[in-house]
Design goal:
Length: about 130
């Protein structure tokens, strides 16, 4: 079972969707939100909204998220964790171009990292 104490800061990040149901807006339609989290600190590094009609962010949308985070952190991780259940072809394509190893794990193993963040997001936007 994965745990934050297993990692050093910036060693591994987690890509996950914040929301279970689309976020509704009157002006721009429905959105989902993809986030990047540091596995050691459980700090949310950044987030990107994408159309709820898409099954995952486009490679360009995820690239924008990676570049935003890199501009603040000045480095990329060696590993990115993504839930087995998540649609992630574009994400995997993008991070592979940066030499980041992708590790797919069951969603339940990521809950210790992302559970509290998802609850807070749901409280605010749910």
């Amino acid at each position: 079972m994965l745990h934050p104490q297993q990692f050093e800061v910036n060693e591994a990040w987690i890509a996950f969707r914040f929301n279970d149901a689309p976020i509704r807006t009157e002006a721009d339609g429905d959105f989902n939100c993809m986030a990047l989290m540091d596995a050691a600190s459980c700090f949310i590094l950044g987030a990107e909204f994408f159309s709820a009609t898409a099954i995952e962010p486009t490679q360009q949308e995820f690239r924008r998220l990676i570049e935003t985070v890199r501009s603040h952190k000045q480095q990329l991780p060696s590993t990115l964790f993504i839930a087995l259940e998540a649609e992630a072809e574009e994400i995997i394509r993008e991070v592979s171009e940066h030499g980041i190893e992708v590790v797919r794990v069951p969603e339940a193993e990521l809950e210790i990292f992302v559970g509290e963040a998802r609850e807070g997001f749901a409280d605010r936007f749910g």
